[in-house]
């Protein structure tokens, strides 16, 4: 709500500062919460000493690895994509559900927690599928269900493109290009990750004070480039402290960015609807489309609560299984 009201033209919560008249740019908030907030959070919990590294063997999968992975890949994709389309879902939920499923279906349960490839292939496939599923509500309803989708919708709005049911008809080349970019992006990930895995691991050997100092420097440069204003630097620091506090006390940071984008749109449409209906709030739910959307929203929320509880049970089972002592029968010295 900071900035100039789009309906009345009055300034709100600007405290008389001209820099806040245009509102707070979403880039400043996103960089402040995700980059500055994360850097401050890691710095507050940083342990002194070198970072332990696990030695890495070959970067290519063997025939046995492929044989054990292709089924978890398919199952992970089948689990992750529908969960990614649910606003209350998320990649974390899909990952834990896939891990639990692979552990129950595996005939080598004793390897889970000690490098079982099924426990990596399935959850990673579910994670990628959930990330792709985010595009479904984004493109069809204009509803960003993750921080990444929120950044995409900001890019759309900067070009005057409004995601929604008519997007496929009005901007068909853009939509299909975006979908095709998913395939190209995955191929590039293979090209970059497999041959260069040793290079990426070397990045972990950079001392963390230098690493996060570089992150903060580039974050400040990116935010300053948006409006070339020192006020953005102050806002960046304040939002970064807010992001650190949210992480410190366990609050999710993605809804803050999504709310910053959807908040002004929701307020404008709400006030417009109330003006048309002469202040009757029942106009918000009486239309058939609104009734269907609210019903689906309640269903999504219920599914989200169920998935969260399921995830908690899976985490408890994993913690109990790891805490149980491993006993072997028939061993002798």
UniProtKB/TrEMBL annotation:
Keywords associated with the record: Membrane, Transmembrane, Transmembrane helix
Protein name, UniProt field: Tripartite tricarboxylate transporter permease
Membrane keyword on record: yes
Keyword ATP-binding: no
Transmembrane parts of this sequence: 20-43, 129-154, 174-198, 210-242, 286-307
InterPro entries (alphabetical): DUF112_TM
Source taxonomy: Bacteria, Bacillati, Actinomycetota, Actinomycetes, Geodermatophilales
Pfam families xref list: TctA (PF01970)
Every DUF112 domain range: 1-257
